Amino acid sequence: MNTATELGRLWLIPTPLGDGSDPKRCLPLDTINVAAALDCLIAENAKTARAFLKLLPLQRPIQEIEIRELNEHTPAAALPELLKPLMSGRDVGLLSEAGCPAVADPGAPLVALAHQRGIPVRPLIGPSSILLALMASGLGGQAFSFAGYLPQQPDARLQAARELEQRSARLGETVLMIETPYRNQALFETLVTALSSETRLLVASALTLPEESIQMASIADWRTRRPALPRVPTVFGLLAPPTGRKPGGKPARSR
Prior knowledge:
It is a single chain. It contains ten helices and ten strands. The chain has 255 residues and is of the alpha/beta class. The protein has two domains: 10-123, Tetrapyrrole methylase, N-terminal domain (Cobalt-precorrin-4 Transmethylase, domain 1); 129-239, Methyltransferase, Cobalt-precorrin-4 Transmethylase, Domain 2 (2-Layer Sandwich). It is elongated and about 55 Å long. It starts with 9 loop residues before the first strand and ends in a 16-residue tail after the last strand.
């Protein structure tokens, strides 16, 4: 640990992608050792953070580890208070609920503020469902973007899906998305309805877990089977044919 005359380090600590998963299956020893040594953590939920800590070779009783909460309801005005231990020289871990901190995660503003205050930020290695899905998709990995959550309102979601497909076609870019598990089916149906028949669509669910499912097919193929998707964390990815084809997969006329 650093002395009190120095700034502490903000460690970004990934966690397994499923409840109860053994950290040793998906986290390197260095990540586990850093997490096990810290006495102050910032997490979305203290209860789930403690459940993760119980799986580590902790260097102190779990009751002695301070856990502060940071979630989507935390006001920006509260962030400086979360950084106070770091300003006094203590190392602190920013713990993700699942996967990597500050990626589709409410920790990003805290990391930004840490940089503004001159606090060293140290990311650690761990699972990212977004990158795992991209790796497994066979879609273009040279250019890709993450669109996060699409709108909940059906018409807006449909329009957003079409705009993302147009972007993919124009830039040759794979587009990745996520959704709240109970809305997986609604997003899937929107994508199958909105996208061109030749666009390829990835559906990757429960990555790294025993029930893992990774499916890749064209929209035309998806329309013939339309499976019921499980209500588990899922990454969707699309890659459209290059610009020069009209929506629906029909070649554009030469002019």
